[in-house]
Write a structure and sequence with these properties.
The protein has 292 residues and is mostly helical. It has a domain of 172 residues: MetI-like (MetI-like fold, Orthogonal Bundle), CATH 1.10.3720. The protein is built from 14 helices and no strands. The longest helix has 33 residues. The chain is globular, with a radius of gyration of 25 Å.
């Protein structure tokens, strides 16, 4: 009788434990805590040092500031020309999101809902493109952009960002579109809807979590991208906030309080956006991994 009771309790614990992991055990909480501290502590040090003076950072780099002085942020905003950098970044981010939605959305719809030839070959090609390092395209792309007159323009940089984000976005959006029942398409066509109406009025409203995830990934990538911005932009007035911060940190290397304050100004929009969108972002990635 005791053996049966022991087996029943063991079976109950196994059923209560979430599949595919350690479950809610002290070890899992310990691992998550260590990873959380590893990711959060550098940001905390950055924020704390943004309120210090240069003397305080030199004498006590990991301690608390003696006072919460906001003058560092105002001075960093003014000397780093943050307003101009954020305006240029807004153009790049919005252009990248809209362009990625347009090109990736149409391509993913074609692969998921239409009977195209060589669909598998196109998907394999996109996987290969994703695996290639972007650095190998810089030199030929630079000479091509010079001939096309797109060098030192925000439009040229938006085109590059859209091209970099489109392959991954196509594959991600395809997984959402494949999961939508085809009966909805057939019912709409029976009612007299054309292909554009089916895509915009039936499929698009059902796939908005995928588009939100793609837009967040593309927008964050364009916001923090540095390599192509440094290479393809020459005029200081056109540089985004990431490039402006690089020049600011190189010009004020001894004023670490201002460098930290400028870093906090740049990081705050990312933190706020991710906190507002984290549930939809994680849910979108999880859904994309369980479909198609």
């Amino acid at each position: 009788m005791s053996t049966l009771a022991f087996r029943a309790r063991r079976r109950t614990r196994t059923e209560e434990r979430p599949p595919g992991g350690l479950g809610r055990t002290p070890y899992s909480y310990l691992v998550l805590t260590v990873l959380g501290l590893f990711a959060f502590l550098p940001v905390l040090v950055l924020i704390v040092n943004a309120f210090k003076t240069s003397l305080e950072i030199g004498t006590n780099p990991l301690g608390l500031p003696s006072s919460l002085d906001l003058s560092n942020f105002a001075e960093a905003w003014r000397k780093g020309n943050m307003a101009r950098g954020f305006a240029n970044t807004a153009v790049l981010v919005l252009g990248t999101i809209v362009g990625t939605w347009l090109f990736a959305g149409t391509a993913a719809y074609s692969l998921a809902r239409l009977n195209l030839p060589l669909k598998r070959a196109i998907e394999n090609y996109l996987f290969v493109i994703i695996s290639l390092p972007v650095q190998m395209f810089i030199v030929p792309l630079f000479f091509l952009w010079v001939k096309l007159g797109l060098i030192n323009t925000l439009v040229g940089l938006v085109v590059i960002y859209v091209a970099l984000n489109t392959p991954f976005s196509v594959l991600l959006l395809r997984t959402f579109l494949v999961g939508i029942p085809r009966e909805l398409d057939e019912a709409a066509r029976i009612d007299g809807a054309n292909e554009w109406q089916v895509a915009t009025r039936v499929i698009l409203p059902l796939s908005w979590p995928g588009f939100a995830t793609v837009g967040l990934v593309a927008g964050l990538g364009a916001y923090s991208e540095l390599l192509f911005a440094v290479t393809f932009l020459i005029d200081v007035e056109k540089m985004p906030v990431a490039t402006s911060f690089l020049q600011f940190s190189q010009g004020f290397t001894q004023l670490y309080n201002l460098v930290n304050a400028a870093g906090v100004i740049i990081v705050i929009p990312l933190i706020v956006l991710f906190l507002l969108m984290q549930r939809r972002f994680i849910a979108g990635l999880a859904a994309s991994g369980t479909k198609g």
